[in-house]
Amino acid sequence: MIPSLPHGGTARHLGGSGIRRDAQSLLGMAPCQKLVFQAQGRFLPGRLSQLKTKAKFGPSPSGRARQWLCLRDRRPPVGAAAAPLAPQGSGWPSCSSGRRDGSTGRPGHRTPGLPVKAPMEMWTNSTERFYRIPEGKGPHSVGCTDLMTENAVEGSFLRLYYPACDATDTEEARWIPDREYYQGLSDFLNMYRIVGERLFHYYVGSVTCPAKSNAAFKPGEKYPLLIFSHGLGAFRTIYSAICIEMASQGFIVAAVEHRDESASATYYCKRRSVSESREESTSNMEKEWIYYRKLKTGEEERCLRHKQVQQRAQECIKALNLILKISSGEEVTNVLHSDFDWNSLKDSVDTSRIAVMGHSFGGATVIESLSKEIRFRCGIALDVWMLPVGDDIYQNSVQQPLLFINSEKFQWADNILKIKKLISNDTNKKMITIKGSVHQSFPDFTFVSGGIIARFFKLKGEIDPNEAIDISNHASLAFLQKHLSLKKDFDKWDSLVDGIGPNVIPGSNIDISPAEPE
């Protein structure tokens, strides 16, 4: 969700704070944790007296600020269920935990994609409201389920969001389904896993997304299909606010979890050794984890990211083929053995109405996917990171309509110049900017964090996060209606696509005019 720094390794376009200061700031916000910041930007167990609590709050925070600083002040309200030590109900009871750590490289490196910093508070005290991911605003209830094919890294892995039958007895899906994702986030943020896992679990371990897990699919019509690509350091569940809104408006959405080592964490299920007794194991499958790979010393980032975006595009196309295969009535084996009835998806996809969407590194994946697959009739790139895109893309290889929706605070001149080069004079390619928004206005982290911590870590911008995501979703729906020939009322938001309306501007806020000679 946060592309790597394309200009000299600074953190300017990530909000102006470097990795070391971010870590120090986290210490300042959690003085009750026995942590000590080291120069490498990591955390170690240590003495409470060694902690510094100055950060932006000053040397002696008081009143409301102290509530945000101290973990012991963040208890759930009376009667609220406590989060389990490890997330339960992940939907993969047949897989136990294995591990493959693919993270190597120089410490402190950052790239676009995920919330580049700390965990968020679910609770501030016993009386304040609970922060949660917004529900879909469309006419459909929303369900979600996970699909994994093949017992190998080459298979597909995605979360499917879809219009669902109303079901009051079905539980909402857990937002972050496995503790290994906490570990991956910790690696990505240069925190020791033992610390990061506990912090993430404490703050977001009980968070659910407003989609019913394995709810019955709503039959009766053919739905347009949207493939979604996550950003760097993210994974398939982190953009649920966008995916749920699209599903509530009548789309089937397949959110791919990429296995190119750009996700914080992902996994596949592999068979255990044939010599291992089944009686001694609950299953003959185990999870093989793949973690985010950092740049190696001396490695050129553009080469790595270009290679990754090629794989990402192929994974999006593979997901498209998989969903169309299911819709055609072919049987597909889901390694995860969920309770969802995949036969209910037969004849559910409108094969003439297919689009691709993604954020940051996922935006670059959108462009690459459009250039490779004409069945994608259009694409939407949210706050795109253009570094991974190859030079060949600019040679008229993307013919489909394309909408760029940018945040105000993330973009920089070189990135905008590349976007404009791709747009050229094509009237079906548009760019707009949401005023007051930041790079993290698109992922879910902006909704599960309170105002002070969210703004401190650039998880929220000046604009209300719900308004920002509404602008993005409405512009996306209007664009999709036009270019997928949908018979909906999304055209009421057509003006947003042209950058007309409150808190939106046409083009970019970045000045790309050449500097005047002195």
UniProtKB/TrEMBL annotation:
Q: Which InterPro entries match?
A: AB_hydrolase_fold (IPR029058)
Lineage here is: Eukaryota, Metazoa, Chordata, Craniata, Vertebrata
The EC number on file is 3.1.1.47
PANTHER family hit by this protein: PLATELET-ACTIVATING FACTOR ACETYLHYDROLASE (PTHR10272:SF12)
Q: State what protein this is by name.
A: 1-alkyl-2-acetylglycerophosphocholine esterase
Do you know which Pfam families this protein is assigned to?
A: PAF-AH_p_II
Cite the entry's keywords alphabetically: Hydrolase, Lipid degradation, Lipid metabolism
Gene Ontology MF term list: 1-alkyl-2-acetylglycerophosphocholine esterase activity
Source organism per UniProt: Pipra filicauda (Wire-tailed manakin)
| GO annotation (BP), single | lipid catabolic process
